[in-house]
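Hi,

I'm pasting everything inline rather than attaching a file, because the server keeps stripping attachments. The sequence lines come first, and each chain or strand is labelled.
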Amino acid sequence: DTAVSQTPKYLVTQMGNDKSIKCEQNLGHDTMYWYKQDSKKFLKIMFSYNNKELIINETVPNRFSPKSPDKAHLNLHINSLELGDSAVYFCASSQDVATIFTDTQYFGPGTRLTVL
Amino acid sequence: SQQGEEDPQALSIQEGENATMNCSYKTSINNLQWYRQNSGRGLVHLILIRSNEREKHSGRLRVTLDTSKKSSSLLITASRAADTASYFCATGGGGSEKLVFGKGTKLTVNP
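And the predicted assembly:
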């Protein structure tokens, strides 16, 4: 059974478009994350939600808006896509925000976004 | 800001050899984790070492942590072709409310 799933796996779109990436975890975890991995493999956290509430919001353009309808889902909506948004976006989850440093984070397979 | 820096950036070895990767960080930490990323896949947790631990083992993996030097090493013994992947260290704590990942070491194990 897939623990953390993301859709779509690949996303190719034109500059200026709006797109969404969906993430679901079936681990019963309270905390979910979005990471961005650039072409040099550098992985940087964007957002973190605990039980549907935003707890980490890195310096991310407000064109990026996460939404958590329930604690098992964390979606990422991106408005007015730019060339620099091209990257692989990973969703992850962990048990509890209180143990954020000691919890294993479980990653989804990633969504490769290409903006043309 | 980036915390962990892995070294080397890339490593190529023959099957059966040992592979050692290093991670250096800048601030104090609560723990350090190592993750593996196979090509085109998400990261997979390998091992966690706490700041009060010096060495930890898991199967063919051995992790050391030297908080005085702010560095950690990951040793994979008797490597296999299936170990080919990128390996990332991630630090937690030190005033940061998130895990901070390094840039990773790309390991290639040749059959």
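Chain B has a mean pLDDT of 91.

If the labels don't parse on your end, tell me and I'll reformat.
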